[in-house]
UniProtKB/TrEMBL annotation:
<keyword id="KW-0472">Membrane</keyword>
<feature type="transmembrane region" description="Helical">
    <location>
        <begin position="111"/>
        <end position="140"/>
    </location>
</feature>
<comment type="similarity">
    <text>Belongs to the binding-protein-dependent transport system permease family.</text>
</comment>
<keyword id="KW-1133">Transmembrane helix</keyword>
<feature type="domain" description="ABC transmembrane type-1">
    <location>
        <begin position="112"/>
        <end position="301"/>
    </location>
</feature>
<protein>
    <submittedName>
        <fullName>Carbohydrate ABC transporter permease</fullName>
    </submittedName>
</protein>
<dbReference type="GO" id="GO:0005886">
    <property type="term" value="C:plasma membrane"/>
</dbReference>
<feature type="transmembrane region" description="Helical">
    <location>
        <begin position="280"/>
        <end position="301"/>
    </location>
</feature>
<feature type="transmembrane region" description="Helical">
    <location>
        <begin position="222"/>
        <end position="244"/>
    </location>
</feature>
<feature type="transmembrane region" description="Helical">
    <location>
        <begin position="180"/>
        <end position="201"/>
    </location>
</feature>
<feature type="transmembrane region" description="Helical">
    <location>
        <begin position="147"/>
        <end position="168"/>
    </location>
</feature>
<keyword id="KW-1003">Cell membrane</keyword>
<dbReference type="InterPro" id="IPR035906">
    <property type="entry name" value="MetI-like_sf"/>
</dbReference>
<keyword id="KW-0812">Transmembrane</keyword>
<dbReference type="GO" id="GO:0055085">
    <property type="term" value="P:transmembrane transport"/>
</dbReference>
<keyword id="KW-0813">Transport</keyword>
<dbReference type="Pfam" id="PF00528">
    <property type="entry name" value="BPD_transp_1"/>
</dbReference>
Amino acid sequence: MTNPVQGLTVNDPVAPASVVLHLNNATEEQLKALKETMRQKAVARRRARLTGRVLINILVALVVLLPLLYCLSVAFMPSGELFTTEMNLLPKHPTFENFVAAFRNIPLLRFIINSFVVSAVITIGQVLTCSLAAFAFSFLNFKGKNVLFMVVMATMMVPGEATIISNYLTVGGWGMLNTYVALIVPYLTSAMGIFLFRQFYMSFPMSLYEAAKLDGCSDLRFIWSILLPLTKGAIGAMSVYTFINAWNMYMWPLLVTGTDDMRTVQIGIAMLDSVDSQSITLMLAGVVMVIVPSILIFIFGQKQLIRGLFSGAVKG
């Protein structure tokens, strides 16, 4: 038996209608099978790329988190378990004694409270001063505005260590050493904050400000009622960035404070090392208590931080 379809094509004049229909059906089935094969290959490629990215992200996360996780593990580890010939990654007998000893050897709670007060006031102060300065650079017209803004931006290239002596002499001349004023006042504004808020404000049309002025809205009311509610992303980014920087300050608090009741938590960690330089577990217990607040603030505020930093770059 020979296949009547074999050797015939759709355009063959002698091909019967049933043969043509059979060829069309066969062609459609082949196309469907080919499309399904291509789709499966595309899905497999996407899954392979996604799996590769996930594995790379997991590897990077482990590299970044491994020191922190080991620090946390050592903080709960008795000193006798750390200095052994075995490599102990996890404590065999977890204990809170290192944390208790940290509070017993230094006034760590007082240091933490001081750091919270200083960081919170600096954060609020920078949000207020930077938003006001950015408003002036964005909506007000005055002579030398662009030149003054460039001068403010140029201060970002000056390291803090270059001005620390002059700031110390100024605060000392005021008689404010070893006070909250000395810890807070030099950091109540920043060029970074002014730049960030200005980039947000520049995305708003000038007609918005002009319409508000025609309605009798003052500049402060315009900032408070219109600009600030519309720039929550910038405020969140600025708050997280400023709080973490203020929390991690070490050199300036060390220079202007002289008693335990005014020192901040970063100085307290250095004091733990001087109390018992051989007790690594004690010092790492203090480190854990210091980094936990900043990590929590970053975790809960990272979306605002990233959104604020990138949204401000849309227009400038």
